[in-house]
Amino acid sequence: MDQNKEVIDALRALIEATDRTTRAVRSLALFVIGYIPWLLAGAVFFSFGFVNPYDGGPYILIGAVILVVGSVVVIAQSLRELGLSRVPINSASGSTVASNVESQLQAMGRPAAENDWRCSSCGVANGKALNACNACGSFRS
To answer: Which pTM was predicted?
Structure first.
């Protein structure tokens, strides 16, 4: 019964990691796709300004303002979405979800290889070829 709870916790962590990845990709897509309408609107005003050589200054100014405002809006939306993809830190232990999953997998009986080294910060077993811990990122001492 206890092992089922550990598997459920590991699956929840996996689903949360997938959601964070989706948020990061959505942030990139939002930046690219969200900028297109602003770019088109600015280009229309720029073209009006360049077609009318004697009185085109206001159109070019409006086009520039549209591009600047659009850039700020799209970057703000993209950064907000990207912020939702951050890995949460467990406030009690200071460990990330990844290290919790690794600890759960080790508790479920995943064997450590003969030449693995244990991280001094979180205790996770890492392969001998690694110089940094997979779970917490601290360097091998």
So the answer is: 0.55
